Amino acid sequence: MPIPDDVTGDEIDKDVRQELLSLPKGLAEEVSRNLVMVARLIDDDPEGAYAYSRIALRLASRVAAVREAAGFAAYANQKFSEALAEFRAARRMTGSVELWPVMADCERGLGRPEKALEMAGAPEVQKLDKASQVEMRLVAAGARRDMDQLDAAIVTLQSPELASNSVQPWSARLRYAYADALLAAGREGEAREWFAKAVESDKDGSTDASDRLAEMDGVEFVDAFVEDEDDEEGERAQVVVSGEAGTDVLADDEDDVDDDADDAEVADMATDGVADDTDDTDEIDGGDLEDDEDDDLDDNEDEAEDDGKGDAPQRPQS
Known about the structure:
Number of strands: 2
Largest sheet: 2 strands, antiparallel
Helix content: 40-55%
Strand content: under 5%
Structural class: mainly alpha
Shape: globular
């Protein structure tokens, strides 16, 4: 696949670049450029990212960073069996446990929530940093919901990180997951409170908490385009806001009346003016796990032969 000329490969993380030093210079550059493309496309064009990851994997399958990138690209395309095999390979090469939460989420994607819960109680979790521990908690709660254990999911999310007033990178997603679980359990009042807290901490719009909050308040935003029959350029937008929040209807109405001045009597009459009535709208503030990789872990890479598609779980982000 073609790679844009502006991609040099120098954009990759220095730790990844260090791993690629084991390769010949020309090969390392080609692999790095493909890894850059994976990172660029994985959110907006996961299929494209997957294609570049396969090229990098073909060129340097013994580099842990390449196996990890291939795993995330497969994960983004819901190829959970393939992703799990790549993550296991990367973990075997590095000895790191940082991929533990996403590996557990792959188990969810493969329809094995019980396995994800086992992983949530494994000793590896204690070796994770705070952000990854929160991700593991999110995965465990998702697994509980997969098993229709709503109350258990709610309890799983209750933690010091949830109760903290400080805003951390994981705060919005943790509060959102808690609110969503409360709502699923029929606890609407509490759910609304936590959706509001999620909005407060969601500085980069990583969740749709504001939309969920507006929905609970009965607020609906409708875009309508109206074309003025007397003027082809008279198209304008109306935003209709209705619901329990007590917001009014915002309408821009223009009635232009121009009388024909051919008749002398009409010429003496004043032309009707344009009436613009606008009401301001209110802003809405809107799992002990036995080690599966003792002696047979090296064989797990072969599991990727199965496309492994399943229901998409919440995607963890470390």
